[in-house]
Amino acid sequence: MENHKRPSATLLFIFGGSGDLNYRKLSPALYNLFIDDWMPEKFSVIGIGRSEYSDEKYRGHLLDGIKQFSRRKEVTDEQWQAFSPHISYLKMDAEKDEEYNLIGDLIKKKETEFGEHPSIIFYMAVAPQLVPDIAKKLGKKHISPDRNCTRIVIEKPFGHDLESAHELNELLMSMYDEKQIYRIDHYLGKETVQNIIALRFANALFEPLWNRNYIDHVQITAAETVGSEGRGAYYEGAGALRDMVQNHILQLICMIAMEAPVSFDADEIRNKKVDVLNAIRRIGKDEVSKYAVRGQYEGGWMEGEKVPAYREEKNVDPKSSIETFAAVKFYIDNWRWQDVPFYIRTGKRLHQKTTVINIEFRPAPSYAFPPEAAETWRRNRLAISSQPERDIRLRFQSKRPGQSMTLNPVDMIFRYKDAYDGNEPEAYETLLLDIMEGNATLFMRKDQVEAAWKIIMPILDAWKNRTPVSFPNYAPGSWGPEDAEALIAKDGHQWIVM
Asked: d(Cα 34, Cα 465) in Å, to the nearest integer?
């Protein structure tokens, strides 16, 4: 095993312990951390829910999820017998104040068992509307009042709009210090996303060119081929802008656009990200149509299968005006990025499942070459992809073999699976380990969350007050509505398709 320091003794309480997030993501991540020898020597994971489970039945339920969703393809009996005793289940009704005494009793029991005071983590793997009440009850009961070792984890969405996000922040801050609150965005745990900082700041090859003098524009595409997947009730209250842009994509922009940190201290990194968010040009409500496009998929055929329109999906309003596609043009008004457009698009039922960042550089002068040499000339481009392939591609010009000076674009490709063993940790593994270690670098801070909401609120307000007349407006298997093509085409560009 790799020799490394492991976190101190930890008690992890998962509210929503019988739910889908724990089944698909959290338990597989914890299992992999255990197998890789990253879990604390003393730890317990307690799933909390209303369902009837014995400890044994609960462990069997989670084992099924691990076998299906873990990056490891098999679970040996020996490994499971070592891991599973750390898992237990606590049946309780989170709406009843008195039942929180069960948590306090369990903490005291584990303190005696461990022989030391552990870190206490409360993970909110529940519907967003339940979070405030649970947090309030935990605070009211003064369960684990030691602020140095108690943490609360909040999944996205963090609020429904700026007002609700601010209210939730104020509630949490009335009971916990900022250093105790971990607002989680799983995108930031992805290896390819974390690698952006390494790529930029550890390579003299890139950083001198990473500005308005050399970069023409930036494109971010986060596309899905699936529809609402039975989550119509959630999506009706969210939409693509809330679901993807306010959190995931704005955080990607921060990683691309931030200034070099002076250290890897959590607040230093987050300060640099907040600077980016504060510099993003605010879009006036009367200008939204110039900078933002929305769409909704219609019914049709996709890969030989008939798929319903969004309005025909389960738990969706037949006259829904919720967007399943969003494209926005952002500008960052600071020295580094002045007048460099950042084009982003995201949506469901699109042509390909992909998440890719494309950095398009300004064209190099071609006057030194004969005209015919540059007929196939293409701009230099850096593409950072996290799916379907995890890779980084650098496009540059090369002379085609032969007697004439003919240039062709070629790609230099770095693939994770070729360079490493292909068993890199999943996002939740990284984030759960950071929580246990008390490292908040990859987690949203209060001012980050609210700054992100301030950016998209004018768009949300404009769309709310203006019913779309063209919905549905894009076919399944396409790249979205025609207006999205027009958004970028009027600047002389087109969306990059890998």
From this structure: 50
* Mean pLDDT, range 371-393, rounded to an integer: 83
* Helix spans in 70-214 (H): 77-83, 101-114, 131-140, 162-173, 191-201
What kind of fold does domain 188-489 have according to CATH? Dihydrodipicolinate Reductase; domain 2 (3.30.360)
Burial class (CB in 10 A: 0-12, 13-18, 19+), 273: buried
Establish whether 248 is a catalytic residue. Answer: yes
- Predicted TM-score (pTM) of the model is 0.91
Tell me the C-alpha distance between 413 and 142, whole Å. Answer: 53
φ, ψ for residue 190, nearest 5 deg: -70, 135
285 or 494, higher pLDDT: 494
**DSSP assigned state of 333:** -
Architecture category of domain 10-155 in CATH: 3-Layer(aba) Sandwich (3.40)
Euclidean distance between CA atoms 428 and 83, whole angstroms: 18
CA distance 180 to 184: 12
List every span in the chain annotated with CATH 3.30.360.10: 188-489
* Residue tagged active-site, from 4, 61, 248, 493: 248
| Model pLDDT for residues 231-259, shown as the tens digit of each residue | 888 888 889 999 899 989 999 999 999 99
- pLDDT for residue 467: 87
Q: Considering only CA atoms, which of 136, 200, 126, 120 is closest in space to residue 170?
A: 136
**Strand ranges (E), 7-69:** 10-15, 43-49
Q: What is the spatial distance between Cα 458 and Cα 376, in angstroms, rounded to a whole number?
A: 42
- Per-residue CA distances from 145 to 120, 141, 175, 176 (Å): 10, 9, 9, 9
